[in-house]
Amino acid sequence: MAKLTYLSHAACLLETNGHKILMDPFLTGNPLAPVEPEDVECNFIILTHGHGDHVGDTVDIAKRNDATVIANYEIATWCGEQGLTAHPLHLGGGHDFPFGRVKLTIAHHGSGYQTDKGILYMGNPAGVLVTVEGKTLYHAGDTALFYDMKLIGEMNSIDLALLPIGDNFTMGIDDAVKATEFLNPKTVVPIHYKTFEVIDVDPNEFVEKARAKGFDAQVVDFGGDLTI
Ligand code: NI
Ligand code: MN
What we know:
- This protein is 21% helix and 32% strand.
- The protein is of the alpha/beta class.
- It has one domain (3-218): Metallo-beta-lactamase, Chain A (4-Layer Sandwich).
- Helix 4 runs parallel beside helix 5 and helix 5 crosses helix 6.
- The termini are close together.
- Bound molecules: nickel (II) ion and manganese (II) ion.
- Manganese (II) ion binds next to helix 1.
């Protein structure tokens, strides 16, 4: 069984067969983060897109753990420039890693990274399908609702979907409920809420609405976990 720990916002840690895969590790500057970046152990880091609240502490954590970053080509190249080991993927492409398979899907969003010299282009934003131990996790990244989620749901038996619900920058609650219908996951967990004032929505409202449609929806506490 694989264990997923929710680290608030879009950050989570997946543990499977001795591997630790960290996703979108925004901890420094995140008022909800249940752990310090210095305390995180991982051997891979997956990034959905280049926004600061997703790249987060990637450089420090990857250096300290000698972890490999998995991301789109533009982010992977930037990580290489920071002295990290990175494996580039791009939308629609997947690769078998020692822990399982990672495939990037489309997401409708932005992917600029803020630097001293302005915004740096970081390629297209992505969602991620991670398959470990025969179970498939879909991390939607930051995205609007899109109809091709139906195709993602048709072509993949999704055991756990992590969907943003915070509105303003991503889907809000009602769009995320529709996304759940398109994806048809065994379990859905809301993410990307409460971190900032503009995304301070109630995850229980999402859970109630998704359950009313017949889905197993669960709020996972910041620092809490579930097995898939
Ligand atoms: Ni974003
Ligand atoms: Mn975000």
